[in-house]
Amino acid sequence: MAQPQTNPTPSSSQLDHVAQAVRDLLHQPDYDDGSAGPVLVRLAWHSAGTYDAASKTGGSNGAGMRYEKEGGDPANAGLQHARAFLEPIKKKFSWITYADLWTVAAVVAIKEMGGPEIRWRGGRTDFTDDNKIPPRGRLPDGAQGADHIRHIFYRMGFNDQEIVALSGAHNLGRCHSDRSGFEGKWVNNPTRFSNTYFKLLLVNDWKKKTLENGVEQYVYVDEDMIEEDEDAEDAEEPEELMMLPTDIALIQDPSFRPWVELYAEHKDIFFDHFAKVFAKLLELGIKRDRNGNIVNEENQQDGYKS
Ligand code: CCH
Fold first, then answer.
1. How high is the mean pLDDT of the chain?
2. d(Cα 131, Cα 210) in Å, to the nearest integer?
3. Domain limits of the chain?
4. Are 264 and 247 in contact (CB under 8 A)?
5. Environment class of 209 (CB within 10 Å of its CB; exposed 0-12, middle 13-18, buried 19+)
6. How much is the ipTM here?
7. 45 part of the active site
8. Which of 21, 124, 234, 259 could cross-link to 164 by cystine, CB 3.0-4.6 Å?
9. What is the position in ligand 1's atom list of the atom closest to the CA of 179?
10. Does ligand 1 have an atom closer than 6 angstroms to the CB of 4?
11. In angstroms, how far is CA 88 from the centroid of its own chain?
């Protein structure tokens, strides 16, 4: 039997250069809310969120989104922007794999946006064809409820507390009608990592709204903000904040809700739990030897043939 291959993890000085290059590209004045950070976080999450613990398939190893089979999944619409932001870094530091770059970029972005330090380990390889890419349909659908969220995240091996902690990433970024069909941001400052998402879930009176495209989401308009803005010289239209049906499920479900309450009240606990669960997400499906190097076993080479 052939020996398993191992891939060395990049050295810390090599990584410092990549991390700096990621920090340098985050500021994008003409893109969304001025930062590439949120979409980079979503790229890492979707690259890892295909994991299935039962069959040990999917996960961030492989960077399958470079192939149409995964990259063309409607669930991944818009993530080509994140991959394009990172492409110059891949060109400059060709030793790093896409799978490592996509995951480390999110960790750097979260920290830079004011979030916690997240443990990250390298050594992922990139698939050289699309045989090992799992079938589509493993990522969550924002239009659904608590049962669906559990079905998706239990499959990866997460519990209810971890599901709620991970969902706190919706403090970042926004929905785009031309990507998911949903529209708007969850918090007023979507490029700053914080626990505001949990606070807003609890304090606001979320109302169901049907968008012009027929998609249903929940919205809230801060009346105080409108009054303040009317007096301001350069008053901008206050933007309606939004929640997905899956976000609202977190306050409706009796097992999810206490975690929302805890994280709304204690930012430090949220940061601690988020750091742990995001690190776990990025390691799903990755088997390491005693030295931390990834072991690509023979049986992991057998993939989906469809
Ligand atoms: Fe999410 N997310 N996400 N999400 N997400 C969207 C955007 C972001 C769901 C649906 C959506 C996580 C969990 C879930 C981010 C991080 C995470 C969008 C809008 C939808 C829809 C996409 C668009 O239109 O551009 C659902 C459903 C779930 C779980 O049930 C988890 C877990 C994470 C990370 C830990 C981030 C960040 C964004 C903003 C992306 C951007 O482009 O601004």
1. 92
2. 40
3. 5-139+278-301, 146-275
4. no
5. middle
6. 0.99
7. no
8. 259
9. 24
10. no
11. 21
pLDDT at 3: 52
Query: Minimal CA–CA distance to 115: which of 35, 9, 10?
Result: 35
> Which class would CATH give 146-275?
mainly alpha
**DSSP structure class, residue 112:** H
Tell me, using a 6 A CB cutoff, whether residue 138 lines ligand 1.
no
Write the residue with the smallest CA distance to atom 19 of ligand 1.
175
173 close to ligand 1 (CB < 6 Angstrom):
yes
Instruction: Check 45, 102, 186, 259 and give the catalytic one.
Output: 186
3-state percent breakdown (helix, strand, coil) of the chain, nearest 5:
45, 10, 45
Q: How confident is the model at residue 296 (pLDDT cuts 50, 70, 90)?
A: confident
Question: Is the backbone of residue 23 left (phi > 0), alpha (psi -120 to 50) or beta?
Answer: alpha
59 CA to middle of ligand 1, Å? Answer: 17
Domain 5-139+278-301, architecture per CATH: Orthogonal Bundle (1.10)
Ligand 1 atom nearest residue 45's Cα: 34
* 8 or 1, higher pLDDT: 8
Instruction: Give the pLDDT score at 239.
Output: 78
At residue 123, does pLDDT exceed 90? yes
- Locate the ligand 1 atom nearest the alpha carbon of residue 149 and give its number: 30
| 46 in catalytic set | yes
pLDDT tens digits along 131-168: 999 999 999 999 999 999 999 999 999 999 999 999 99
225: pLDDT strictly greater than 90: no
CA of 280: how far to CAs of 54, 205, 273, in Å?
16, 33, 11
